[in-house]
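Table S4 entry, Riboflavin biosynthesis protein RibD.
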Amino acid sequence: MSDADHMAHALSLGRRGLGRVWPNPAVGCVLVRDGRVVGRGVTQPGGRPHAERVALDQAGEAAQGATAYVTLEPCAHHGQTPPCAAALVQAGVSRVVTALEDPDTRVSGRGHARLREAGLNVTTGVLADVARWDQAGFLSRVVRRRPMVTLKLATSLDGRIATASGESRWITGPEARRAVHAMRLNHDAVLVGGGTARADDPRLTVREMGPVRQPVRIIVSQRLILPEEGELARSVDEGPLWLIHGDGAAEERRAFWAGRGARLIEAPVSRGQVCPTEMLNALATEGVTRVFCEGGGSLAASLLEAGLVDRIALFSAGLFLGAEGHPGLGALGIDRLADAPRYRLKQHRRIGADVLSLWSL
């Protein structure tokens, strides 16, 4: 098998950690000796131990003389665990193949340099484009100081999310809804606006997928006007609940939600709403790398208008609701086609009776 084949194996392992290991990157590692895989590892829930350590422990003495395929440059700094570059050297690995250099200033080439200084053969850039897609959240947090944002929309064929009376459950079928739960699972956080929380009172948890590490549920509500007897309030112990609000939120509302166990994060207000850029910066500071935004229309529009949406997951159902239906997005203030954000189609597939199209910048 080629370097690309073994790296593809390591990348498939790394994806298992998406949504489970933040703020650390979801890394995969495969150890190969004499053409045989002797160790596999993925970054463990919570971010430790790292993938290289897991693979080395599995391989034991078989790591001596092996080639390590790692989806991101091994760390070279002492954090809560010893550096993985040193562990690979100590284990007697003879060659290391990586997909990407780590842009974190604590690593950024130092891991590769440390391996070469120890006499190991180092090859970089194998399946780099695939790794960049997988690591987009981690890379965004390090380089842009904000998490990657995926916007999910579930609409009729004419772009409506509810009838004129507000009925919206269910536009898409059960298969599409299950796919949404899988998408929640590989993101660190699920985000909705206060209007959606009031209208739908969603739990926003991952369900029917066995015991899983729940994503952080984030509600953006400038004044913390949220249902205090609904699903959110009743399900605080089912997964972390963060509420992002402005400085005008009433003290009694802050006290209520803090008393229920929610975490409150104050963010600056701009143009009458929580500033989307400042909000994402705050989430990055908290370690969040991947955000799955499920609406509503005003929040989605503010993120799009600010150029903060990296990917779009559009579920299209085979029905029409007409002009009187509720649109999937709020106003964007676009007068010219040239000013409209344009995305590229990455994937298109059938999900039950519906269609999922994935788009990226």
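The mean pLDDT is 92.
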